[in-house]
Amino acid sequence: MTRQNDEVDELFDVSNAFYLGNYQQCINEAAKISKPSLEKDIFLYRAYIAQRKYRVVLDEIKSNNDTPLLALRFLAEYLSVKTKRESIISAVQSYTEKNSSNAGDLNVVWIIVAATIYCNEGNYESALQILHGVFHLEFLSLQLQCLLSMNRVDLAKKVLQTMQEKDDDATLTQLSQAWLHIQIGGEKLQDAFFIFQDFCDKFSPSLLLLNGQAVCYIGQQKYDEAENILRECLNKDPSNYDTLINLLTLSQQKEKNNSLFNRYLSQLSDEHKDSQLIVSYGKKQAEFDRLVLQYGPSNNKSIADIAV
């Protein structure tokens, strides 16, 4: 076995834990590897970002870093410092455009970061554009997620077929298949559930996998089963975004009053005030208030005053 293959095998547990959402396990596995490895460090810092531990990344990756890790500093800064987002988007876009012809690992990391930022902005067209033409499994997985967000199941099926031809057994391929099954719905929900369950059995149940199962249950109208899984998720992390979103959805199906819905919405507003859902909700609320003022009664006097 070559030195390169040794390194790939050694990094499998690191990358696989990251893809499955077992971020602390990814960090722990990376710590076991004593020899320097840029790819190991990339997954390590991506795991810290996924845990929202942005300060670790910003403290350890300096602004003058000349490796692909600099892209991860930009991502951590983008997610943690709202006032810098526009300048960071511009800087990342400029860098990726200048290095678009570079097919090495350096450009791979920058493209993943750029696509992640575009997706966070809801700019799926730009994300697809930067991901186009490279048949790296993670690029294809991100393409599929973008297409599902745009409700282009037809194109997502083609991307999944490419992934299956490349490596049908890969973790990213299996997860992508599960996400596509969820979007299709119906009988495919059970197939998606089994994929998540298989990963839970082989490795360990992460919030990503458990929330995937909960979504399957909600789609099958198995609300009690979904609630049990989401309670387990809350025990693991009471402020997890996906868990709160799914509980918000579930509360609309199960509760006759809005008390739980309002509670989860308040928690989302507190913990994830810059998320797409909360920003969109705030805009709609402001628009509603504006329409009330515009089309509401112009006479501010009470009925009692008018009667006098």
From TrEMBL:
Cell compartments where the protein resides: Cytoplasmic vesicle, COPI-coated vesicle membrane; Golgi apparatus membrane
SUPFAM superfamilies: TPR-like (SSF48452)
Signal peptide from the UniProt entry: none
Keywords from the named record: Cytoplasm, Cytoplasmic vesicle, ER-Golgi transport, Golgi apparatus, Membrane, Protein transport, Transport
Topology versus the membrane: Peripheral membrane protein
Function: The coatomer is a cytosolic protein complex that binds to dilysine motifs and reversibly associates with Golgi non-clathrin-coated vesicles, which further mediate biosynthetic protein transport from the ER, via the Golgi up to the trans Golgi network. The coatomer complex is required for budding from Golgi membranes, and is essential for the retrograde Golgi-to-ER transport of dilysine-tagged proteins.
The family this protein is said to belong to: Belongs to the COPE family.
Name the record gives this protein: Coatomer subunit epsilon
Species of origin: Corethrella appendiculata
Organism phylogeny: Eukaryota, Metazoa, Ecdysozoa, Arthropoda, Hexapoda
